[in-house]
Design goal:
- The chain has 222 residues and is α/β, with parallel strands linked by helices.
- It has a domain at 3-105 and 118-140 and 202-216: Rossmann fold.
- Helix content is 40%, strand content 19%.
- The strands form two sheets. A six-stranded parallel β-sheet has the order 1-10-7-4-2-3, sandwiched between helices.
- The radius of gyration is 17 Å and the shape is globular.
- 41% of the residues are buried.
- The structure holds iron/sulfur cluster.
- Residues 152, 156, 160, 167-169, 175-177, 188-189, 191, 194-196 line the site of iron/sulfur cluster.
């Protein structure tokens, strides 16, 4: 990637950071995944109870490895039975820190997330004392309409593939709503495996700086 493009992306991240700040979220800009990892490391006290949403971004930045390093009381869902996973979903509400990515972030300072189980969007909205959101520059969009489109064209089909969900978007590569010309946010398939169930916009917050957003000047996740 050229220096010129990096500079343009940097300006976009700076605009987004200002808007997030105006919405009472605490933004950081990291130039690299490594810098993002180090920001996360510096934001969590050793021994803290931590939880996270399922996220390729957290894996690609090395954050999942950090969470499993033994430094924290990590509520880890890996290898657990469905009943244990449900228990962890609920315990996550009392975690000190919750880590996640976001399906999109707008330049107006909004987070946009679409969730199937809805545990992730629930924890972003309420519960954990601190929420750290790590987002690659590829997920920053201009408006909420762009965010809605991004999920239907990219995030949901890719996540359906990651999770092995037999949905229309897995077979066709985009949401059924786009193929049928339906334009509403919640339009989509009627599949039992549908991963788009709760649509959450996080705008101005009452609790200042509870949500920290690390914007990374690299493409990460989807
Ligand atoms: S509504 Fe269905 S087809 Fe559309 S993105 Fe979600 S899972 Fe895929």
């Amino acid at each position: 990637m050229s220096e010129q493009l990096d500079m343009i992306y940097r300006k976009m991240l700076e605009r987004t950071a200002e808007a997030l700040k105006a919405n009472n979220m605490l933004p950081y800009i990291a130039e690299t995944k490594e810098e993002a990892l180090s920001l996360v490391k510096g934001s969590i006290a050793e021994g803290a109870t931590v939880s996270c949403g399922g996220s390729v971004t957290l894996a690609e930045t090395g954050i999942m490895e950090l969470l499993r390093s033994g430094k924290y009381n990590f509520l880890d869902r890996e290898g657990k039975t469905p009943e244990e996973v449900q228990k962890i979903y609920r315990e996550a509400f009392s975690a000190d820190v919750y880590l996640t990515s976001s399906n999109a972030v707008t330049e107006n300072g909004e987070l946009y997330n679409v969730d199937g189980n809805s545990n992730r969007v629930a924890a972003i909205c309420f519960g954990p004392a601190s929420v750290i959101v790590v987002v690659g520059r590829n997920k920053v969009v201009r408006t909420l309409d762009d965010a809605i489109l991004r999920v239907k064209r990219m995030a949901a089909p890719a996540n359906a593939a990651r999770l092995g969900c037999e949905t229309y978007c897995l077979s066709k590569g985009e949401c059924m709503a786009l193929a049928s010309g339906a334009s509403g946010m919640t339009e989509g398939c009627r599949s039992k495996a549908r991963i788009c169930c709760s649509y959450v916009v996080t705008a101005q917050q009452r609790i200042k700086d509870r949500i920290k957003v690390i914007l990374v000047n690299e493409d990460i996740g989807f």
